[in-house]
Amino acid sequence: MAYLDFMSAVHKSTSRDYLARVNDPEYPKAKAAALAKQWGYDYWDGDRRINYGGYKYLPGRWLPVADAMRDHYGLKAGDKVLDVGCGKAFLLYEFTQSVPGLEVAGLDISAYALEHAKDEMKPFLTEGNCTELPYEDDSFDLVYSLNTLHNLHCHDLDKAIREIERVSKGHSYICVESYRNEEEKTNLLYWQVTCEAFNTPKEWQWWFDHCGYTGDHSFIYFE
User: Fold this and answer.
1) Which domains, ranges and CATH numbers included, belong to the chain?
2) Could you count the other beta carbons within 10 Å of the beta carbon of residue 117?
3) Three-state SS at 198
4) Among 127, 114, 113, 73, CA closest to 95
5) Which pTM value belongs to this model?
6) Do 32 and 21 meet the contact criterion of CB atoms below 8 Å apart?
7) DSSP class of residue 124?
8) Residues 105-164 pLDDT 10s
9) Where are the beta strands (DSSP E) in the chain?
10) Cβ contacts of residue 68 below 8 Å, gap of 6+?
11) How far apart are CA 104 and CA 81, in angstroms?
């Protein structure tokens, strides 16, 4: 298992007003969270005060991530890649541009996201829960999950990590939210609307060890 940071550049490209999200009079934090956890329009394309505020495809935004993962894992035509929590499958699409001939699959709990995914990716996407992946053991050359598993309660988090390990032939990568100090913890609490697993890096490492996870990982911090 290695710490590999593929995600910080994308995460840090977004500016955040932490206090504004907590104090907004129309969408106070509890209301925003309740709407976001429906995983529908409000979460993806509704008001920015709830979550993304319009999650649209921007050509090339995810390509550096796809290229970096391609190079590190040696991905080539014919290899199989699974995105657990794929959303609208923008990164999966960029993978197909980075590695022509790559076989891709994506799974997400949000029917709305899959309906509004990149058209080219829709045939390869499945609505489902990461606690029970509908794939055989050792099915994929790379399994990754970005900013998804921290949305799970502990009993489901345990299942999801074990499922990622099960369907991977050996390469996997998980990125989750975390915090290293009280300031980052507070910012995370202020900003998040769907997070259920609030863990320090040491606690995340405990989860990985507990579930027998042998893949790679990284954290995003709200500095």
Assistant:
1) 8-220 (3.40.50.150)
2) 23
3) coil
4) 73
5) 0.95
6) yes
7) G
8) 999 999 999 999 999 999 999 999 999 999 999 999 999 999 999 999 999 999 999 999
9) 80-84, 103-108, 125-127, 140-146, 168-177, 216-220
10) 6
11) 5
Alpha-carbon torsion angle 215, 165, 52, 25, nearest 10: -100
Angle at CA 192, nearest 5°, toward 186 and 196? 95
Residue pair 167/138 in contact (Cβ under 8 Å)? The answer is yes
How is residue 74 written in tokens? 């040696």
Cα–Cα distances (Å) from 85 to 23, 88, 202, 211, in that order, read: 29, 9, 24, 19
Short-list 163, 172, 162, 102, CA closest to 134: 163
Cα(99)–Cα(101) distance, integer angstroms = 6
Sheet with 125-127: list strands edge to edge: 125-127, 103-108, 80-84, 140-146, 168-177, 216-220
